[in-house]
Amino acid sequence: MSVISKRTALATAFAFAFAGTSVANATSLESIQKADANIQQDAVKSQQKINKLYDQAQDMLFDYRLVVDEYETHKSYNDYVAGLVADQEADIASLKEQIAGIDKTRQGVIPLTFKMIDTIDQFVELDVPFQLEERRARVARLKEVMGESEVSTAEKFRLVLDAYQIENEYGNKMAAYEGKLNLDGKEITVDYFHLGRVIFLAQSLDQKSAWVWDNANRSWKALPDESMRSVAGAIKMARKQAAPDLLKLPVQTAEGAE
């Protein structure tokens, strides 16, 4: 064989060997790429599962927190209601005790009410006799209501307390009103004026005569002419027909009218 033939045969052998190696390498690379693609797909699927599980865990955590908050709210409310129930039970127990003693209390209230009516009746008769008819009528009504079965004991006692309150307020009032005055068996129409229980005056409608009440002697005493203007001014102020002003009024004292 010639030298050229040997070289040709060797080149051909190298070519086949290289071709075989390239084919083998190409097959391995394709397998690797396919395997890598599969790994990537599996990784994506795994990540999707992880994300889904994470979302589920977050939802469960949110629900758990809601349940905890709701539990705390209900517990706080239940504790509040329990406190109310305990307080109501205490009130019920107290009311039961009071109800048990109502009859005994009522037995004590009725005699006390009668005694209070008798006291205010005596007081009105001994007091300065301003607005006497009105005050006597109030006492008479109290006596009547005590015999009315449809009026509760509590209401009867309240009416008596109201009468006492009215009598107390008279001591702080200035008032004037028209009425009848009996002097030496003769009845005349006059304007009455009282400042609390300190001053009680009467003046004829023509403002020519005036009197001051002497409670110690239970009688009226005539006032001098110079007092007429002051008495008339006091009556006008009490009726809000004149502006408030300082007045010199007669006051019955132990030494007499001043």
TrEMBL record:
The lineage of its organism: Bacteria, Pseudomonadati, Pseudomonadota, Gammaproteobacteria, Alteromonadales. Keywords: Signal. Residues 1-26 form the signal peptide. InterPro entries: UCP028069. Pfam families: DUF3450. This is DUF3450 domain-containing protein.
